[in-house]
Amino acid sequence: MENSRCSLNGSPSGKGLSVEIEKHSGFCGGVIRAIGTAERYLKENGGTLYSLGAIVHNEAELHRLQGIGLVSIGMDVLLRMDGRSAKTSPLLIRAHGEPPSTYSLAEKLGIEVIDCTCPVVLRLQQNIKEAFQRLKPHGGQIIIFGKIGHAEVLGLVGQTDGEALVVEDIPMLKGFIAEGRIDREKPLAVFSQTTKSPSEYSEICAILKAWAKAEPEIHDTICSQVASRHSELSSFAEEHDVIVFVTGTDSSNGKVLSNLCRNHNPRTWNVTSPEEIDPSWFNPGERVGICGATSTPRWLLDEVAAAVTSL
């Protein structure tokens, strides 16, 4: 999938908009790997392939993949599956990863697993598991900066037998400290969901370091591809008059990055498809930047750019 910079200038309607797609927008490596694996399986075997949860948080891409046989299922459906039946497809684990209990369940049901957990997430899972095993005998605590209920976070918490404390933001952290849910006397290990804001994670770590009696273990676990995009998107948003951010409604990464763009350019608009573009957002001759989340397919970015160019 190509992520090269693309500029589209002019428009038939006379607005004369200059349209540019941010060069690093589009799928991250983990999503590319998972979708590529699903496409290869379906091309070689046909039929249906089940994905435990949406393989990517983008409605348009999910619709495309559904058309070639990829079906998203929930845990309730998995519990009713029987791997010994010839009608049961393998189970694809998406890039977000899963807790150990999911693999145990699949084995119990006799279901083959195609594991597409992102290597970055796999490494994070292992690091959290090791830290938990090391700190638990000393009454230590694992703290994860992430979105409660997010698929990746559920997989991370699963490495601690459900004991890790998930912190969504600074107010929540301060609330947990006030309620005594974090023991300042005991060792702490702090991790982040791979797609969170680096600056916000730094603030959370700074608060814990200043508050805890023993120096907490701080682990740098935000994906480097995601982290570098924060500075790149900040500059991109400032360089353009209007930003059109393309993202799925359920994309956690999309919410973080679109808010980042909006902080640097108030004229940032979120869309899920070209049909949502409003011509009133643009003035003649303006520079329009098109960008998206790590779950946004390049083909959708191209379609949105073309739609803006045609205004």
Which key features would you list for this structure?
311 residues, five-stranded mixed sheet, 41% helix, disordered N terminus
Question: How is the secondary structure organized here?
Answer:
Elements: E1 6-9, E2 18-21, H1 29-45, E3 49-52, H2 59-66, E4 70-73, H3 75-78, E5 91-93, H4 100-109, E6 113-115, H5 119-135, E7 141-145, H6 151-157, E8 165-167, H7 170-179, E9 188-192, H8 198-211, E10 217-218, H9 224-239, E11 242-246, H10 252-264, E12 268-271, E13 287-292, H11 298-309
Parallel strand pairs: 2-13, 3-4, 3-5, 5-6, 7-8, 7-9, 9-10, 11-12, 11-13
Antiparallel strand pairs: 1-2
Q: Give the helix level as a range of percent.
A: 40-55%
In the predicted model, the low-confidence regions spanning at least 5 consecutive residues are: 1-13
SSE-based structural type: alpha/beta
Shape label: flat
The CA-CA distance between the termini, in Å, is 27 Å
List SSEs in N-to-C order.
EEHEHEHEHEHEHEHEHEHEHEEH
Quaternary organisation: single chain
Number of DSSP strand runs: 13
Largest beta-sheet characterization: 5 strands, mixed
Q: Strand content of the residues, in percent?
A: 15-25%
Number of helices: 11
- Please state how the strands of the largest beta sheet are arranged side by side: 1-2-13-11-12
Overall average residue pLDDT: 90
Describe the structure.
- There is one protein chain.
- With 311 residues, the chain is an alpha/beta fold.
- The protein has helices at residues 29-45, 59-66, 75-78, 100-109, 119-135, 151-157, 170-179, 198-211, 224-239, 252-264, 298-309; strands at residues 6-9, 18-21, 49-52, 70-73, 91-93, 113-115, 141-145, 165-167, 188-192, 217-218, 242-246, 268-271, 287-292.
- The strands form three sheets. Strands 1-2-13-11-12 form a five-stranded mixed beta sheet, sandwiched between helices. Strands 4-3-5-6 form a four-stranded parallel beta sheet, with helices on both faces. Strands 8-7-9-10 form a four-stranded parallel beta sheet, sandwiched between helices.
